[in-house]
Specification:
With 160 residues, the chain is an alpha/beta fold. The chain is 48% helix and 15% strand. Strand 3 (82-86), helix 5 (93-105) and strand 4 form a beta-alpha-beta unit. 44% of the residues are buried.
């Protein structure tokens, strides 16, 4: 949470991404921050890398699905930003490559993971791993953790 607070205070932004249900969570959390979580307040800079259908289809077609998020992190990420992956397995190549791209650029790489964390340990820091095997249970906890992040950011930034 402190990493995200420091990013926003420094003029940075949060880049959320994931696949499937995690993509929906990324969109949900970015919207909570840019619009409002608990009450009307100043917007918090956040974007979901899962929403631009033209970029998603062009990257998937021209560069391959594995580059889906890495390409966007390279285009939109700046030093001081946070790239926050949401993944139940931690093994999806497009997630791993995006976090690697973030680290190469000086963008903080963070993640919500599940199961044993997959390839995320040592790649994402902070890394919050939900120690469950069932995808549904992991996703339930990810959205809860994300909602807690939104609330904590509002409080820490003095917007609540």
């Amino acid at each position: 949470m402190r990493l995200c607070t420091n990013s926003i205070r420094g003029g940075g932004k949060l880049l959320f991404f994931g696949n499937g249900g995690s993509a929906a969570d990324a969109q949900h959390l970015a919207t909570e921050l840019t619009v409002r979580y608990r009450k009307d307040r100043a917007p918090i800079a956040a974007i979901a890398l899962t929403t631009d259908s033209s970029a998603l289809t062009a990257i998937g077609n021209d560069l391959g699905f594995d580059q889906l998020f890495a390409r966007q992190v390279r285009a939109l990420g700046r030093k001081g930003d946070v790239a926050l992956a949401i993944t139940t397995s931690g093994k999806s190549p497009n997630i791993v490559l995006a976090l690697q791209a973030a680290r190469e650029m000086g963008v903080s790489a963070a993640a919500f993971g599940g199961k044993g964390g997959g390839d995320l340990p040592g790649l994402a820091d902070p890394l919050l791993i939900v120690p469950a095997q069932a995808t549904a249970r992991i996703q339930e906890m990810h959205i809860t953790l994300g909602q807690m992040l939104c609330g904590a950011l509002e409080i820490e930034l003095g917007l609540a």
